[in-house]
Amino acid sequence: MSCSVLIVGTTPDYVAKLYERYSKSLLFLTDLRFQEDPLLSPLPPSSLIFAPLQDAETACRKTRDALTAGRSTPEGIACFDCDSLLLASRLGSELGLRFPTWEAIARSRSKFETKKIWSAHGVASPLASIVSSLRETLGFFNTYGRNMVLKPISGSGSELLFHCTDEPALTQAVKTLEEELPKRSRNPLFRPFPNPAGGSPIDPCRCWVAEEFISGPEFSCDFVLQDEKIFFIRETGKIKATDKPFGSVLAYTFPPRYPSGFQKRILKEALKKATNSLGFDWGFFMVDYIVNQGTPMLLELTPRPGGDSIPELVRAATGLDTLALYLDFVQGRFREPEEPALAPESFASLNFFAPKEGRIEVLDGTGVRALPHVKELFFKKKPGDRVILPPKDYDHRLLGYCILEAKPGLDLMAETQRLQKLLEVSIEQDA
User: Fold this and answer.
1) Topology of the domain covering 216-341
2) 9 near 83, Cβ under 8 Å?
3) 304 versus 196: which is more confidently predicted?
4) DSSP β-ladder status, 27-31 and 48-51
Protein backbone atom coordinates (compact mmCIF):
# COMPACT_ATOMS: atom_id res chain seq x y z
CA MET A 1 0.00 0.00 0.00
CA SER A 2 1.13 3.60 -0.55
CA CYS A 3 1.61 5.78 2.53
CA SER A 4 1.51 9.57 2.49
CA VAL A 5 2.12 10.24 6.19
CA LEU A 6 3.26 8.07 9.09
CA ILE A 7 1.43 9.21 12.23
CA VAL A 8 3.17 8.31 15.48
CA GLY A 9 1.13 7.78 18.62
CA THR A 10 -2.35 9.23 19.34
CA THR A 11 -5.51 7.60 20.67
CA PRO A 12 -8.07 5.42 18.84
CA ASP A 13 -10.66 8.21 18.57
CA TYR A 14 -8.15 10.48 16.83
CA VAL A 15 -6.87 7.65 14.63
CA ALA A 16 -10.41 6.88 13.48
CA LYS A 17 -11.15 10.57 12.78
CA LEU A 18 -7.94 11.15 10.87
CA TYR A 19 -8.40 8.00 8.78
CA GLU A 20 -12.00 8.77 7.92
CA ARG A 21 -11.63 12.49 7.32
CA TYR A 22 -8.35 12.93 5.49
CA SER A 23 -6.77 10.05 3.68
CA LYS A 24 -6.95 6.29 3.35
CA SER A 25 -3.18 6.29 2.80
CA LEU A 26 -2.27 7.35 6.34
CA LEU A 27 -0.24 4.80 8.31
CA PHE A 28 -0.67 4.77 12.08
CA LEU A 29 1.86 3.59 14.64
CA THR A 30 -0.17 3.23 17.81
CA ASP A 31 0.25 1.64 21.20
CA LEU A 32 -0.16 -2.09 21.65
CA ARG A 33 -2.77 -1.57 24.37
CA PHE A 34 -5.24 -0.29 21.72
CA GLN A 35 -5.07 -3.44 19.58
CA GLU A 36 -8.59 -4.57 20.45
CA ASP A 37 -10.20 -1.13 20.58
CA PRO A 38 -13.51 -1.16 18.64
CA LEU A 39 -12.89 2.33 17.27
CA LEU A 40 -10.08 0.89 15.14
CA SER A 41 -12.14 -1.93 13.65
CA PRO A 42 -13.11 0.03 10.48
CA LEU A 43 -9.44 0.47 9.55
CA PRO A 44 -7.74 -2.18 7.39
CA PRO A 45 -4.91 -4.02 9.19
CA SER A 46 -2.43 -2.66 6.63
CA SER A 47 -2.95 0.90 7.95
CA LEU A 48 -2.12 0.03 11.58
CA ILE A 49 1.14 -0.83 13.31
CA PHE A 50 0.82 -1.89 16.94
CA ALA A 51 3.86 -1.69 19.20
CA PRO A 52 4.73 -0.85 22.81
CA LEU A 53 5.51 2.82 22.27
CA GLN A 54 7.52 3.07 25.48
CA ASP A 55 9.97 0.62 23.88
CA ALA A 56 11.50 2.75 21.11
CA GLU A 57 13.65 -0.07 19.72
CA THR A 58 10.68 -2.38 19.20
CA ALA A 59 8.45 0.41 17.87
CA CYS A 60 11.06 1.46 15.30
CA ARG A 61 11.74 -2.13 14.23
CA LYS A 62 8.04 -2.90 13.78
CA THR A 63 7.61 0.28 11.75
CA ARG A 64 10.52 -0.51 9.45
CA ASP A 65 9.23 -4.08 8.99
CA ALA A 66 5.73 -2.83 8.12
CA LEU A 67 7.04 -0.30 5.61
CA THR A 68 9.25 -2.93 3.99
CA ALA A 69 6.41 -5.46 3.80
CA GLY A 70 4.08 -2.86 2.29
CA ARG A 71 6.76 -1.50 -0.04
CA SER A 72 5.82 1.93 1.23
CA THR A 73 7.84 5.10 1.74
CA PRO A 74 6.08 7.89 3.67
CA GLU A 75 6.32 11.45 2.41
CA GLY A 76 6.12 12.84 5.93
CA ILE A 77 5.92 12.00 9.61
CA ALA A 78 3.42 13.56 12.02
CA CYS A 79 2.66 13.46 15.73
CA PHE A 80 -0.34 14.82 17.65
CA ASP A 81 0.71 13.81 21.20
CA CYS A 82 3.48 15.24 23.37
CA ASP A 83 4.36 11.81 24.79
CA SER A 84 5.18 10.43 21.31
CA LEU A 85 7.24 13.34 19.98
CA LEU A 86 10.63 11.86 20.90
CA LEU A 87 9.74 8.58 19.19
CA ALA A 88 8.52 10.47 16.10
CA SER A 89 11.81 12.35 15.96
CA ARG A 90 13.83 9.13 16.14
CA LEU A 91 11.72 7.52 13.41
CA GLY A 92 12.04 10.60 11.26
CA SER A 93 15.81 10.42 11.55
CA GLU A 94 15.87 6.69 10.69
CA LEU A 95 13.53 7.08 7.72
CA GLY A 96 15.07 10.27 6.36
CA LEU A 97 11.92 12.32 7.04
CA ARG A 98 12.14 15.86 8.37
CA PHE A 99 10.95 16.27 11.95
CA PRO A 100 12.11 18.48 14.84
CA THR A 101 15.28 17.18 16.48
CA TRP A 102 15.33 14.89 19.46
CA GLU A 103 17.38 17.42 21.48
CA ALA A 104 15.00 20.34 20.84
CA ILE A 105 11.97 18.20 21.72
CA ALA A 106 13.62 17.03 24.96
CA ARG A 107 14.11 20.68 25.98
CA SER A 108 10.50 21.58 25.20
CA ARG A 109 9.16 18.55 27.08
CA SER A 110 10.47 19.91 30.41
CA LYS A 111 8.43 22.89 31.54
CA PHE A 112 11.33 23.88 33.78
CA GLU A 113 14.13 23.52 31.23
CA THR A 114 12.08 25.46 28.68
CA LYS A 115 11.72 28.49 30.96
CA LYS A 116 15.35 28.26 32.08
CA ILE A 117 16.50 28.49 28.46
CA TRP A 118 14.00 31.23 27.62
CA SER A 119 15.16 33.30 30.58
CA ALA A 120 18.77 33.01 29.42
CA HIS A 121 17.80 34.21 25.93
CA GLY A 122 15.56 37.11 26.94
CA VAL A 123 12.22 35.46 26.19
CA ALA A 124 9.52 36.74 28.56
CA SER A 125 8.15 33.85 30.66
CA PRO A 126 7.44 33.11 34.33
CA LEU A 127 10.33 32.52 36.73
CA ALA A 128 10.40 28.81 37.51
CA SER A 129 12.20 26.14 39.52
CA ILE A 130 12.09 22.36 39.70
CA VAL A 131 11.19 21.15 43.20
CA SER A 132 10.49 17.81 44.86
CA SER A 133 9.48 18.56 48.45
CA LEU A 134 7.40 20.90 50.59
CA ARG A 135 10.56 22.57 51.89
CA GLU A 136 11.83 23.37 48.38
CA THR A 137 8.39 24.55 47.27
CA LEU A 138 8.06 26.85 50.30
CA GLY A 139 11.52 28.23 49.54
CA PHE A 140 10.40 29.32 46.06
CA PHE A 141 7.10 30.63 47.44
CA ASN A 142 8.77 32.87 50.01
CA THR A 143 11.44 34.07 47.60
CA TYR A 144 9.25 35.04 44.65
CA GLY A 145 6.31 36.93 46.05
CA ARG A 146 4.03 34.29 47.66
CA ASN A 147 1.90 34.03 44.53
CA MET A 148 2.75 30.95 42.49
CA VAL A 149 1.61 28.07 40.33
CA LEU A 150 2.53 24.42 40.85
CA LYS A 151 2.35 22.03 37.89
CA PRO A 152 3.74 18.68 36.69
CA ILE A 153 6.98 18.98 34.79
CA SER A 154 5.54 17.28 31.70
CA GLY A 155 1.76 17.13 32.08
CA SER A 156 -0.87 18.72 29.86
CA GLY A 157 -3.86 20.99 30.22
CA SER A 158 -4.98 21.75 33.76
CA GLU A 159 -3.92 18.40 35.19
CA LEU A 160 -2.61 18.81 38.76
CA LEU A 161 -2.29 22.56 38.31
CA PHE A 162 -2.53 24.68 41.49
CA HIS A 163 -2.53 28.41 42.20
CA CYS A 164 -1.20 29.11 45.70
CA THR A 165 -1.33 32.44 47.55
CA ASP A 166 -0.94 31.19 51.13
CA GLU A 167 0.93 28.44 52.94
CA PRO A 168 -2.09 26.22 53.77
CA ALA A 169 -3.09 26.09 50.07
CA LEU A 170 0.50 25.40 49.08
CA THR A 171 0.86 22.62 51.66
CA GLN A 172 -2.33 20.96 50.42
CA ALA A 173 -1.23 21.27 46.77
CA VAL A 174 2.13 19.63 47.53
CA LYS A 175 0.36 16.85 49.44
CA THR A 176 -1.89 16.22 46.41
CA LEU A 177 1.07 16.19 44.03
CA GLU A 178 2.98 13.76 46.25
CA GLU A 179 -0.06 11.46 46.36
CA GLU A 180 -1.23 11.73 42.75
CA LEU A 181 1.94 11.90 40.66
CA PRO A 182 3.15 8.34 41.51
CA LYS A 183 -0.28 7.00 40.48
CA ARG A 184 0.38 8.28 36.96
CA SER A 185 3.59 6.32 36.41
CA ARG A 186 1.94 4.21 33.66
CA ASN A 187 0.56 7.26 31.89
CA PRO A 188 2.74 7.97 28.80
CA LEU A 189 2.84 11.70 29.65
CA PHE A 190 4.40 10.93 33.02
CA ARG A 191 7.06 8.43 32.00
CA PRO A 192 10.70 9.41 32.65
CA PHE A 193 12.26 11.31 29.76
CA PRO A 194 15.84 12.37 28.94
CA ASN A 195 17.29 15.24 30.92
CA PRO A 196 18.14 17.95 28.37
CA ALA A 197 20.86 19.21 30.71
CA GLY A 198 22.48 15.75 30.86
CA GLY A 199 22.61 13.21 33.66
CA SER A 200 19.84 10.92 34.85
CA PRO A 201 16.41 10.97 33.15
CA ILE A 202 13.75 13.22 34.66
CA ASP A 203 10.96 11.35 36.45
CA PRO A 204 7.77 13.50 36.30
CA CYS A 205 6.28 11.44 39.11
CA ARG A 206 8.94 12.50 41.62
CA CYS A 207 9.22 16.27 41.05
CA TRP A 208 7.19 19.21 39.85
CA VAL A 209 7.56 22.82 38.70
CA ALA A 210 7.07 25.91 40.84
CA GLU A 211 6.63 29.13 38.88
CA GLU A 212 5.53 32.67 39.53
CA PHE A 213 1.88 33.48 38.85
CA ILE A 214 1.40 35.85 35.91
CA SER A 215 -1.82 37.85 35.74
CA GLY A 216 -3.59 38.65 32.50
CA PRO A 217 -5.78 37.04 29.82
CA GLU A 218 -4.50 33.75 28.41
CA PHE A 219 -4.30 32.73 24.76
CA SER A 220 -2.94 29.96 22.58
CA CYS A 221 -1.93 29.74 18.96
CA ASP A 222 -0.62 27.39 16.31
CA PHE A 223 2.22 28.66 14.15
CA VAL A 224 4.76 27.46 11.63
CA LEU A 225 8.49 28.17 11.67
CA GLN A 226 9.86 27.87 8.16
CA ASP A 227 12.65 29.65 6.27
CA GLU A 228 13.44 31.68 9.42
CA LYS A 229 9.91 33.15 9.43
CA ILE A 230 6.90 32.77 11.72
CA PHE A 231 3.48 32.12 10.13
CA PHE A 232 0.34 32.17 12.30
CA ILE A 233 -2.11 29.34 11.69
CA ARG A 234 -4.74 30.20 14.28
CA GLU A 235 -5.07 32.22 17.49
CA THR A 236 -7.63 31.59 20.21
CA GLY A 237 -8.53 33.12 23.56
CA LYS A 238 -9.18 31.12 26.71
CA ILE A 239 -11.92 31.62 29.27
CA LYS A 240 -11.14 29.83 32.51
CA ALA A 241 -13.77 28.10 34.65
CA THR A 242 -14.06 29.70 38.08
CA ASP A 243 -15.81 26.74 39.71
CA LYS A 244 -13.42 24.02 38.50
CA PRO A 245 -9.81 23.16 39.39
CA PHE A 246 -7.38 25.96 38.55
CA GLY A 247 -6.54 26.18 34.86
CA SER A 248 -9.67 24.39 33.62
CA VAL A 249 -10.79 25.88 30.30
CA LEU A 250 -14.47 26.72 30.12
CA ALA A 251 -14.32 28.03 26.55
CA TYR A 252 -12.05 28.90 23.64
CA THR A 253 -12.83 32.02 21.62
CA PHE A 254 -12.02 32.73 17.97
CA PRO A 255 -10.62 35.11 16.91
CA PRO A 256 -9.24 36.20 20.27
CA ARG A 257 -9.88 39.58 21.85
CA TYR A 258 -6.43 40.94 22.62
CA PRO A 259 -5.92 43.78 25.12
CA SER A 260 -5.79 47.27 23.66
CA GLY A 261 -2.36 48.10 22.32
CA PHE A 262 -1.19 44.50 21.93
CA GLN A 263 1.03 44.06 18.88
CA LYS A 264 1.17 40.73 17.07
CA ARG A 265 4.54 41.76 15.69
CA ILE A 266 5.94 41.49 19.21
CA LEU A 267 4.40 38.02 19.59
CA LYS A 268 6.03 36.90 16.34
CA GLU A 269 9.40 38.14 17.54
CA ALA A 270 8.97 36.29 20.85
CA LEU A 271 8.01 33.04 19.10
CA LYS A 272 11.01 33.24 16.77
CA LYS A 273 13.39 33.75 19.68
CA ALA A 274 11.63 31.07 21.78
CA THR A 275 11.83 28.34 19.13
CA ASN A 276 15.39 29.14 18.10
CA SER A 277 16.61 29.19 21.72
CA LEU A 278 15.25 25.66 22.23
CA GLY A 279 17.05 24.44 19.10
CA PHE A 280 14.16 24.39 16.60
CA ASP A 281 14.79 25.65 13.07
CA TRP A 282 11.59 24.29 11.51
CA GLY A 283 8.25 22.93 12.64
CA PHE A 284 4.55 23.27 13.37
CA PHE A 285 3.97 24.45 16.95
CA MET A 286 1.37 25.11 19.61
CA VAL A 287 2.09 27.71 22.30
CA ASP A 288 0.23 29.04 25.36
CA TYR A 289 0.84 32.60 26.51
CA ILE A 290 -0.49 35.29 28.85
CA VAL A 291 -0.56 38.94 27.84
CA ASN A 292 0.73 40.91 30.83
CA GLN A 293 0.86 44.71 30.42
CA GLY A 294 1.15 44.30 26.65
CA THR A 295 3.91 41.68 26.78
CA PRO A 296 3.27 38.06 25.69
CA MET A 297 4.58 35.86 28.53
CA LEU A 298 5.13 32.38 27.08
CA LEU A 299 4.01 29.46 29.26
CA GLU A 300 4.83 26.38 27.18
CA LEU A 301 5.54 25.38 23.61
CA THR A 302 5.35 22.04 21.83
CA PRO A 303 6.01 20.97 18.20
CA ARG A 304 2.54 19.71 17.34
CA PRO A 305 -0.87 21.22 16.47
CA GLY A 306 -3.27 22.37 19.16
CA GLY A 307 -5.92 19.86 20.15
CA ASP A 308 -9.03 19.83 22.35
CA SER A 309 -11.93 21.54 20.56
CA ILE A 310 -9.69 24.05 18.76
CA PRO A 311 -9.49 22.35 15.31
CA GLU A 312 -13.29 22.02 15.17
CA LEU A 313 -13.76 25.62 16.34
CA VAL A 314 -11.51 27.05 13.63
CA ARG A 315 -13.02 24.78 11.01
CA ALA A 316 -16.59 25.83 11.87
CA ALA A 317 -15.65 29.52 11.88
CA THR A 318 -13.53 29.73 8.73
CA GLY A 319 -13.45 26.39 6.93
CA LEU A 320 -9.72 26.15 7.65
CA ASP A 321 -8.77 22.63 8.72
CA THR A 322 -5.67 22.99 10.89
CA LEU A 323 -5.09 19.24 11.13
CA ALA A 324 -5.18 18.82 7.34
CA LEU A 325 -2.86 21.81 7.03
CA TYR A 326 -0.42 20.09 9.41
CA LEU A 327 -0.50 16.88 7.35
CA ASP A 328 0.27 18.95 4.24
CA PHE A 329 3.06 20.76 6.10
CA VAL A 330 4.94 17.59 7.04
CA GLN A 331 4.82 16.56 3.37
CA GLY A 332 6.40 19.87 2.33
CA ARG A 333 3.20 21.43 1.00
CA PHE A 334 2.67 24.40 3.32
CA ARG A 335 0.68 27.47 2.33
CA GLU A 336 0.12 30.29 4.81
CA PRO A 337 -3.62 30.65 5.54
CA GLU A 338 -5.34 34.01 5.20
CA GLU A 339 -6.19 35.90 8.37
CA PRO A 340 -9.94 35.56 9.03
CA ALA A 341 -12.04 38.66 8.44
CA LEU A 342 -14.00 38.15 11.65
CA ALA A 343 -14.67 40.32 14.67
CA PRO A 344 -13.05 39.17 17.94
CA GLU A 345 -14.90 36.35 19.71
CA SER A 346 -17.28 35.73 16.78
CA PHE A 347 -17.16 32.01 17.55
CA ALA A 348 -16.55 29.95 20.67
CA SER A 349 -16.30 26.35 21.78
CA LEU A 350 -17.89 25.66 25.16
CA ASN A 351 -16.84 22.70 27.30
CA PHE A 352 -19.39 20.62 29.21
CA PHE A 353 -18.04 19.03 32.40
CA ALA A 354 -19.68 16.18 34.30
CA PRO A 355 -21.27 17.32 37.58
CA LYS A 356 -20.25 14.21 39.52
CA GLU A 357 -18.47 10.87 39.31
CA GLY A 358 -20.16 7.64 38.31
CA ARG A 359 -21.54 5.82 35.30
CA ILE A 360 -23.41 7.78 32.64
CA GLU A 361 -26.99 6.57 32.27
CA VAL A 362 -28.33 9.28 29.94
CA LEU A 363 -26.53 11.84 27.76
CA ASP A 364 -28.76 13.69 25.29
CA GLY A 365 -27.93 16.98 23.57
CA THR A 366 -31.16 17.49 21.60
CA GLY A 367 -31.96 20.73 23.45
CA VAL A 368 -28.54 22.19 22.70
CA ARG A 369 -28.50 21.14 19.04
CA ALA A 370 -31.88 22.83 18.49
CA LEU A 371 -30.48 26.30 19.24
CA PRO A 372 -29.91 28.31 16.03
CA HIS A 373 -26.52 29.71 17.09
CA VAL A 374 -25.12 26.26 17.93
CA LYS A 375 -23.21 25.00 14.89
CA GLU A 376 -22.01 21.63 16.17
CA LEU A 377 -22.14 19.49 19.31
CA PHE A 378 -19.54 16.80 19.98
CA PHE A 379 -19.77 14.24 22.76
CA LYS A 380 -16.62 12.61 24.08
CA LYS A 381 -18.69 10.36 26.34
CA LYS A 382 -21.64 8.06 25.83
CA PRO A 383 -24.06 6.17 28.07
CA GLY A 384 -22.22 3.40 29.88
CA ASP A 385 -18.97 5.35 30.20
CA ARG A 386 -17.58 6.21 33.61
CA VAL A 387 -16.80 9.72 34.79
CA ILE A 388 -13.81 10.31 37.08
CA LEU A 389 -13.14 13.73 38.58
CA PRO A 390 -9.95 15.55 39.62
CA PRO A 391 -7.54 15.11 41.20
CA LYS A 392 -7.77 11.42 40.28
CA ASP A 393 -8.32 12.15 36.58
CA TYR A 394 -8.70 15.32 34.51
CA ASP A 395 -9.66 13.86 31.11
CA HIS A 396 -12.68 11.76 32.05
CA ARG A 397 -14.70 14.71 33.40
CA LEU A 398 -15.30 16.25 29.96
CA LEU A 399 -18.64 15.17 28.49
CA GLY A 400 -18.12 17.10 25.25
CA TYR A 401 -18.26 20.57 23.76
CA CYS A 402 -20.32 22.68 21.38
CA ILE A 403 -19.31 25.21 18.74
CA LEU A 404 -21.46 28.33 18.57
CA GLU A 405 -21.64 31.63 16.76
CA ALA A 406 -21.42 34.39 19.35
CA LYS A 407 -23.15 37.76 19.10
CA PRO A 408 -21.14 40.79 20.31
CA GLY A 409 -21.20 41.06 24.09
CA LEU A 410 -22.38 37.49 24.73
CA ASP A 411 -21.46 36.40 28.27
CA LEU A 412 -19.84 33.05 27.49
CA MET A 413 -19.68 31.97 31.11
CA ALA A 414 -23.41 32.49 31.56
CA GLU A 415 -24.09 30.92 28.14
CA THR A 416 -22.16 27.80 29.06
CA GLN A 417 -24.19 27.43 32.24
CA ARG A 418 -27.43 27.93 30.28
CA LEU A 419 -26.51 25.33 27.66
CA GLN A 420 -25.30 22.90 30.32
CA LYS A 421 -28.81 22.97 31.81
CA LEU A 422 -30.24 22.06 28.38
CA LEU A 423 -28.18 18.85 28.31
CA GLU A 424 -30.05 15.82 29.56
CA VAL A 425 -27.49 14.15 31.81
CA SER A 426 -28.00 11.35 34.30
CA ILE A 427 -25.05 9.85 36.16
CA GLU A 428 -25.39 6.94 38.57
CA GLN A 429 -23.06 7.81 41.40
CA ASP A 430 -20.61 5.16 42.55
CA ALA A 431 -21.70 3.35 45.68
Assistant:
1) D-amino Acid Aminotransferase; Chain A, domain 1 (3.30.470)
2) yes
3) 304
4) parallel
